[in-house]
Design brief:
With about 425 residues, the protein is an alpha/beta fold. The chain folds into two domains: about 325 residues, UDP-N-acetylmuramoyl-L-alanine:D-glutamate ligase; about 90 residues, Adenosine kinase, small domain (2-Layer Sandwich), CATH 3.30.1110. Helices cover about 40% and strands about 20% of the residues. The strands form three sheets. It has a ten-stranded mixed sheet with strand order 8-7-6-1-13-14-15-16-17-18, sandwiched between helices. A six-stranded mixed sheet has the order 3-4-12-9-2-5. Strands 10-11 form a two-stranded antiparallel sheet. The chain is globular, with a radius of gyration of 21 Å. InterPro entries: ADP_PFK/GK, Ribokinase-like. It comes from Gracilibacillus salitolerans. One of its GO terms (molecular function) is phosphotransferase activity, alcohol group as acceptor.
Length: about 425
C-alpha cells in the first residue's frame, strides 16, 4: 500500500479505533504539568521598532539571555531564535516586562494537557495530571473527553476541580518563515517558522505530584493503554528531580505489574539545564518503552554524549537514535518527529506503530494549518496535502539501507508556512497514543 493510501486508511479507521477504546473504557494517562499559555500575536514590525529604540549592536552578534531581566535581554533573545529559526524556552524574571508588547489571548500549556485537548477534539478520552489547576486552566480543559483525579481519588472532569496550587504563566511567541528583521543596514529573513517560550516558572519548578492520580493508574492499569511521562524539563535542582523520578520508577513497576502490555511513553523537551537533562535521561530512560523527541532534542542529547550527527542526514539520525537506545537502555525504541517525517527506530511492537506515526502526523499538521486542535473534518483536509519531498526521499534512503527492518519512517503531509508551530509536538504525541490499545 502506498503512503498516500495508508493515510486515507488510517483516517477511515480512526472512528473505529476510538470507539474501541471507549467501549473498553481505555484511555492514555497524560502527565505531568499544566500551565496557562499567553499566546502573543507576534508582529515582526514591533520587534524592528524595539530594535531601533533599544539596540546598537549588530543583529548577527545577538545571543539569548540565560534569564531575561531587561528589554535588551528580551530583544537579543527573540532576534537569536528568529535568526536561527529554532524553538526553545528562556526564563524571565518578571513577566510585566513583556506583557504589553503584543496583543494576547489565553491558551493551554504543557505537553500532557495539550495532547489531551488534541485527543478531545476527535472525541478520544484521556486522563491528565494537573500542576497548575487554576480556573483559567481548568476552563480551557473542560471537556467530556478529558478526565483528571480528585484529591479523593475520584475520576472527574476539570470543571469539578478546586484550585490548590499557584498559577504558572508562559508567554508564547510564534514567528513566521520569511518575515524580515532589520536594524540600520543589517537584516535577515527568518529561515523557519517556530516558537519561543518565555517562562516564569512557579509551580512547575518542582512538578508537584498528585498521589491520587498515580494511585488511580496503578489500581486501574488495564484501562490505561499508555502511560505518558513528560515535563521534568523545568526542574532546576537535581535533588528535586531525583525525588520525582524515583517515585515515577516505583509507579512504573506497579503499572506494569497490573498491565504488562501497557506502554510507558516518555516525551522529551527543551531543558533549562544539560545537567538536569542528563540526570533525567540516565535515571528514567531505562524504565520506559518508548522515548519520543524532535530533531533539535535529538541533536542536543547526542551532543551531551559527544556523538555528533547531521540532522539533515537521515542515516546519521538513525545511527544517533540507535546510540541513544543502546547507551541509555531504552526498552523498546525511540521516535523522532520533524516537519518532514516521523520515525520509529527499535524493537518490533505489538501495536502498529506506523499507524501511530500517521495519526501523530495528522494531528500535528492539522494544528499547524488551523492553529487549533483539529476536528475529524479538519483532519480530513490534511489528506489533500502532498507528502513532504524530504520525507519521501528519507523513506527511500532508509528502505535501501541496512536499517530497512529497524526503522519505520512516515513522511508528513507538508506545509511550508504553518499558521502555528505551538503544540505541534504535543499534538503528535497525542496522535501516537491512538495505536496503543
Amino acid at each position: 500500500m502506498k503512503m498516500e493510501e495508508k493515510y486515507v486508511d488510517c483516517y477511515n479507521n480512526m472512528d473505529k479505533a476510538i470507539n474501541h477504546r471507549q467501549s473498553n473504557n481505555k484511555m492514555p494517562a497524560m502527565g505531568y504539568t499544566s500551565n496557562l499559555d499567553v499566546l502573543c500575536d507576534f508582529n515582526v514590525d514591533i520587534i524592528n521598532d524595539l530594535l531601533e529604540e533599544y539596540m546598537e549592536e549588530e543583529l548577527s552578534q545577538m545571543k539569548p539571555a540565560k534569564v531575561i531581566n531587561t528589554m535588551e535581554d528580551f530583544i537579543r533573545t527573540v532576534v537569536y531564535f528568529c535568526r536561527e529559526g529554532i524553538g526553545g524556552e528562556v526564563d524571565i524574571a518578571d513577566t510585566k516586562l513583556i506583557e504589553h508588547i503584543f496583543p494576547t489571548k489565553y491558551g493551554m500549556g504543557g505537553t500532557a494537557t495539550q495532547g489531551a485537548m488534541a485527543l478531545a477534539a476527535i472525541e478520544c478520552p484521556s486522563l491528565v495530571h494537573l500542576t497548575d489547576d487554576s480556573k483559567e486552566v481548568c476552563d480551557i480543559l473542560d471537556s467530556p473527553y478529558i478526565y483528571t483525579i480528585s484529591s479523593n481519588g475520584d475520576l472527574i472532569h476539570t470543571n469539578q476541580v478546586s484550585q490548590q496550587v499557584e498559577q504558572e504563566i508562559h508567554f508564547i511567541l510564534q514567528f513566521k518563515k520569511g518575515d524580515s528583521i532589520h536594524l540600520k543596514d543589517e537584516s535577515f529573513e527568518i529561515p523557519s517558522s517556530n516558537r519561543l517560550i518565555i517562562t516564569k516558572i512557579t509551580v512547575n519548578e518542582t512538578v508537584p505530584f498528585s498521589k491520587p492520580y498515580f494511585q488511580y493508574i496503578e489500581d486501574n492499569a488495564k484501562q490505561i493503554s499508555s502511560n505518558v511521562l513528560s515535563s521534568f524539563n523545568a526542574i532546576k535542582y537535581t535533588d528535586v528531580l531525583m525525588e520525582r523520578l524515583n517515585f515515577v520508577k516505583q509507579h512504573i513497576k506497579k503499572y506494569r505489574s497490573n498491565n504488562p502490555s501497557g506502554i510507558v511513553f516518555f516525551e522529551d523537551a527543551h531543558y533549562h539545564s544539560d545537567q538536569v537533562k542528563k540526570q533525567c535521561m540516565e535515571t528514567i530512560y531505562a524504565e520506559v518503552d518508548i522515548v519520543c523527541m524532535n530533531e533539535e532534542e535529538l541533536d542536543q542529547i547526542l551532543k551531551i554524549y559527544d556523538f555528533p550527527i547531521n540532522i539533515d542526514d537521515i542515516i546519521s539520525c538513525v545511527e544517533g537514535v540507535k546510540f541513544i537506545k543502546e547507551h541509555l537502555n531504552i526498552q523498546k525504541g525511540v521516535i523522532v518527529h520533524t516537519k518532514d517525517y516521523s520515525m520509529y527506530v527499535g524493537e518490533d511492537l505489538q501495536s502498529d506503530i506506523e499507524s501511530g506515526l500517521i495519526y501523530g502526523n495528522m494531528l500535528a499538521t492539522t494544528k499547524a494549518i488551523f492553529g487549533s486542535y483539529g476536528s475529524k473534518q479538519q483532519i480530513e483536509k490534511t489528506l489533500e496535502l502532498p507528502l513532504s519531498e524530504i520525507g519521501m526521499k528519507n523513506k527511500e534512503i532508509i528502505s535501501n539501507s541496512s536499517y530497512h527492518n529497524k526503522a519505520v519512517i512516515v513522511p508528513t503531509k507538508y506545509i511550508d508556512k504553518p499558521k502555528y508551530t505551538i503544540g505541534l509536538g504535543d499534538s503528535f504525541v497525542a496522535g501516537v497514543q491512538i495505536c496503543f490499545i
